[in-house]
Amino acid sequence: MALKMQVRGEGGAVLSPLVSLGGINPLLQGVDRERFPLLGHIDPYGETIFNSLQVRSLMKELSSWSPGIADIEVPVGQLVEYCKCVLADTHRYLWIFGD
Question: What is the pTM (predicted TM-score) of this model?
């Protein structure tokens, strides 16, 4: 089950291509929800939407999260880039889609 992500604007306007997060699935990988509350609440089966304030916190979580899986470094990097895209302008949101 692969999560996908996309940056959208106000009203749902698509601002980035839909990209797979590869092997990243924090909830199914047993992430500690108390230590990583945003990562730990990504819905693996539905939609999760982060606003710019949440994205700032998500980036802090990503910088200290070590999933222990070597082949997900590239998707984590892509997730960080999409977070930066959200922060580059107002009224942007990070959408994460589960299966």
Answer: 0.88
